[in-house]
Fold:
Amino acid sequence: MAEKLLRVHRLRRIYVWELPVRIYHWVNVLVLLVLIVTGFYIGNPLALMSGKEASEVYTMGWFRYLHFAAAYIFFFNFVFRIYWGFAGNKYANWKQFIPTTKTFWKELKTVLKMDILLMKGNKEEREHLTIGHNALAGLTYFGTFLAFLLQCLTGFGLYASMASWWFPKLFAWVPFVLGGDILTRQIHHWTMWFFILFAVIHVYLVFYHDYVEGRGEISSMGGGWKFIEEDYFEKNKPHTPNPEK
Structure:
């Protein structure tokens, strides 16, 4: 009886998020903030009253410059993430995001049942644990990757007609395919709101899971480490990277 009451809840530290993934994440946070703020200003600029000559006031120019500079960083950061989906560890791999197996769909059903619908589930579902992204999170991130692609296409498509560099001009076909600049700009704007909504839900869920599970969800994107129960680790060694460490 005493042994049962004094059982220690042991946790093991596992390296989940590699440095390139963490850099990608925080670069994305910063550039998206810049893109959203400058995008709002460009779409609906403030009437700034000034006694200076018009040639000396460059407010819109600076906002556009910041927007375009952040767009380039956003694009090449996204291209790097596509590469790291093949070069990174199992938690960064594209298999974590694309539902190609029965196991993925089974886990997706479990997460929807337990986390979203808050149903009790059976014993196997209650003991379910995902070290990296769970299936629902992975599928959601795959949706954000598609949104990243759409935002890059529409953004550079709008910029192509005024750009002097050859790279943006590669996207000159996008407004033509979408039916003109007006609809392209609207899609670009709607996608921005998708990112705002996603960010709110994402931050909420990170804090929620960190509080409920206590596995270092928040700190993991800083140092890369998460914590899981020792029993689960021993049972699932083949599914963890470098299990001997």
In short: The CA atoms of residues 129 and 140 lie 18 Å apart.
